[in-house]
Design brief:
Helices cover about 15% and strands about 40% of the residues. The chain has four helices and 18 strands. The strands form four sheets. Strands 3-2-1-4-5 form a five-stranded antiparallel sheet, with no helix packed on it. The chain has a five-stranded antiparallel sheet with strand order 8-7-6-9-10, with no helix packed on it. A hairpin with a 6-residue loop joins strand 7 and strand 8. Helix 2 crosses helix 4. The termini are far apart. About 30% of the residues are buried.
């Protein structure tokens, strides 16, 4: 039985002007000239990958795909079609769609061109070949458990799953990590490569990670954010170290503790002062 999405051994059945037909003795499928590697002849057995062309017809190729319905690998995102989905390159002439149904609800966290996804292939109810994101059990099967020595190190990896309260990362070390929404200032895209800091190693070998800088690193960044915000308002803002945490989070996307550290740095440097619920540039005195 000839099946899309699989590499199969078929017999070269007959020749036509534009290539050959290969067969399993029950069905046949076209092997175009451009999809042939090397030389072939009638009655020879060849390994081919089966897919559908843009008109829905079966096509075979001797090019080896990166992924199949039975195998997973990292593949490049090569196109984005809003409302429809994203296209991945699997090493054949046709790019494969990952449907919007299998992507995050909000398109701003969809993969962009150049991002990578860990995928296999699947066929929909109409037999159309689609990309399929790897589920959690597949990611866990190839993961490497982290040890306590991973605590507080920086890791690089790619986001492989997004949920309402955070994002999952698969690191270069093979760790699976979770980034809670409180540990980021902006939600990373699915497939995006990021650098995070391990803030906890769990008993099962997975980690919790953060995209927020360490306290001493973040203070300079936070101070700059506050200073630039004040500049945009003519050197004054209706926030000070006693402002409500939720107001600080909404305006600056930082915790109250981080805000106070950054504001304290600016005050220590003599750049700002506070008065009756406001903070001002010292030059305004």
């Amino acid at each position: 039985m000839i099946e899309a999405g699989k590499v199969q051994t078929l017999q070269v059945y007959r020749q036509v002007d534009f290539g050959y037909y290969v067969s399993d003795e029950v069905e046949e499928v076209l092997l175009p000239k451009k999809e042939i590697i090397g030389e072939i002849q009638l009655d020879q057995e060849v390994e081919v990958f089966i897919y559908h062309d843009h008109e829905g017809r079966w096509i075979s190729t001797m090019k080896t795909p990166t992924i199949t319905v039975d195998t997973y690998d990292w593949v490049d995102v090569v196109g984005v079609n809003p409302g429809l989905g994203v296209f991945i390159n699997i090493g054949i002439s046709k790019d494969i769609l990952i449907s919007s149904d299998d992507l995050p609800l909000f398109e701003e966290v969809w993969p962009q061109v150049g991002d990578k996804l860990y995928c296999s292939l699947k066929c929909d109810k109409n037999g159309r070949l689609l990309g399929k994101l790897a589920p959690d059990p597949v990611m866990k099967e190839m993961a490497t458990p982290a040890t306590r020595s991973a605590y507080n190190i920086n890791v690089k990896g790619r986001i492989y799953r997004t949920v309402k309260v955070g994002s999952y990362i698969f690191t270069e070390e093979g760790f699976i990590g979770f980034i809670h929404e409180s540990q980021r200032r902006q939600e990373p895209r699915l497939g995006e490569e990021i650098e995070a800091r391990v803030i906890d190693v769990k008993e099962d070998g997975t980690v919790n990670a953060s995209l927020l800088p360490r306290g001493h690193e973040g203070m300079d960044i936070d101070s700059k954010v506050i200073y630039e915000y004040m500049e945009s308002r003519g050197g004054a803002m209706p926030f000070w170290d006693k402002s409500a945490p939720e107001d600080i989070q909404e305006q600056f996307e930082m915790s109250k503790a981080g805000f106070k550290r950054a504001l304290g740095k600016l005050m220590k440097e003599g750049k700002v002062y506070q008065e009756e619920g406001w903070t001002y540039f010292s030059s305004r005195k």
